[in-house]
Amino acid sequence: MSKANQIQAPKGVSEYVPPQSRKFESVRQALLEPAKNAGYELIELPVFEDTDLFTRGVGESTDVVSKEMYTFEDRGGRSITLRPEGTAGVMRAVIEHGLDRGQLPVKLYYSGAFFRAERPQAGRYRQFYQVGIEAIGIQDAALDAEVIAIADAGFRSIGLKKYRLEITSLGDAISRAKHRIDLVKFIEKLNLDDATRTRAAINPLRLFDDKREEIKKQMADAPLLLDFLSEQSLKDFEDVQRHLSEMKVDFIINPRMVRGLDYYTGTTFEFVHELLGAQSGIGGGGRYDGLMAELGGQELSGIGFGLGIDRCVLAADAEGISFDQEFTSDLFIIPLGDESKSTALKTAQELRNAGFRVEISFGDRALKGSMKAADKSGAAYVLVLGESEISSGTVELKQMSTGETSSVTLTSLQNHLRNVSGK
């Protein structure tokens, strides 16, 4: 088939095939493990929702809603959107299934694909993957610090070192109301196009997130929300910093951070990797005090994060971190003949059930070709299984790294592998 006739993946979609998928899976598991260790439980969500969930939950003034959502009409005439982020869907599920009526905080983790209609580039995809957590129902600076520390632990477990944590506070309603008065007065004097002025009228904080240089220059002297924090918001922010310091989680304060979603309040944070260029954010999140009520639920606060698996893979590559050694086989079996295949399948199944990773050479390849396949698989040991080995019940087990062989009975193979592998 010619290249012209081949169907290819849509532009801007991140997909992973071996060996890169090994890194992807290692990164995903590393990011999830700290959340599991902290008592978070899995939630699986639909990849599409009613569009209203995101326009109400994420915010009409955000680029996500106004420019980047994949929205379509289904066969029933309903407006449906592929999920651009995870928090709104989690909150919808918590309300719908009454999870907020039980033990608080509700602690959930998720992972999966998300979708935004953006201009594709390295680290910025139309389909991308995230790991996220949400802790809903308790407002406590210590919980804020724990959530941030869980993200930091995930990055460290990957082996990442060249990243920094930036934090700020977007305050409470009192703080934002006071700040908005001065910020609106400041913005009224700026030279803005109609679209930008309209967006600022909905949420003036959005201009701090504008990436255009001309807007950045005009906003350089804008009043900062950190200077308008109420007494309680300031205390909460100071407590978060104290808790992070006690846990030895390094951070810097970024007073101009607002992030890209309207629901954030209070503690807000972002992790930035220094080797990723323009798409340097590898994860972030914050507290959202009014989101549940906005979506028809109780007046409960929450805090969470989303961590970019794709960008963490890129960051690991940039730092030269390798995961390949985690995906080697314990044993590679080479059967010679039809009778040997049955014995090989039975032996492999018994070993796999005992927790070993075992591969078999298929397709009646010659011994030389099968040995090459065993070498490429990264198997620790290989054994050849022919008629003589089956009749005697004894095989020669070859250690691939040294070439040394040892005679082992088939009945003692599992114990022998357990002794040499430490499993």
UniProtKB/TrEMBL annotation:
Q: Which CDD domains match?
A: HisRS-like_core, HisRS_anticodon
* Keywords from the named record: Aminoacyl-tRNA synthetase, ATP-binding, Ligase, Nucleotide-binding, Protein biosynthesis
Keyword ATP-binding in the entry? The reply is yes
The chain positions of domain Aminoacyl-transfer RNA synthetases class-II family profile read 25-335
Task: Give coiled-coil spans as residue ranges.
Answer: none
Catalytic activity of the protein: tRNA(His) + L-histidine + ATP = L-histidyl-tRNA(His) + AMP + diphosphate + H(+)
HAMAP family, per this entry? His_tRNA_synth
Enumerate the PROSITE patterns for this protein: AA_TRNA_LIGASE_II
Say yes or no: keyword ATP-binding present.
yes
Q: According to its record, what are the GO cellular component terms?
A: cytoplasm
Task: Name it.
Answer: histidine--tRNA ligase
Q: Which Pfam families match?
A: HGTP_anticodon, tRNA-synt_His
EC number assigned by the record: 6.1.1.21
Q: What class of enzyme is it?
A: ligase
For this protein, the record's InterPro entries field holds: aa-tRNA-synth_II (IPR006195), aa-tRNA-synth_II/BPL/LPL (IPR045864), Anticodon-bd (IPR004154), Anticodon-bd_dom_sf (IPR036621), His-tRNA-ligase (IPR015807), HisRS-like_core (IPR041715), HisRS/HisZ (IPR004516), HisRS_anticodon (IPR033656)
Which GO terms of type biological process are on file?
histidyl-tRNA aminoacylation
Molecular function in Gene Ontology? ATP binding; histidine-tRNA ligase activity
Q: Which family does it belong to?
A: Belongs to the class-II aminoacyl-tRNA synthetase family.
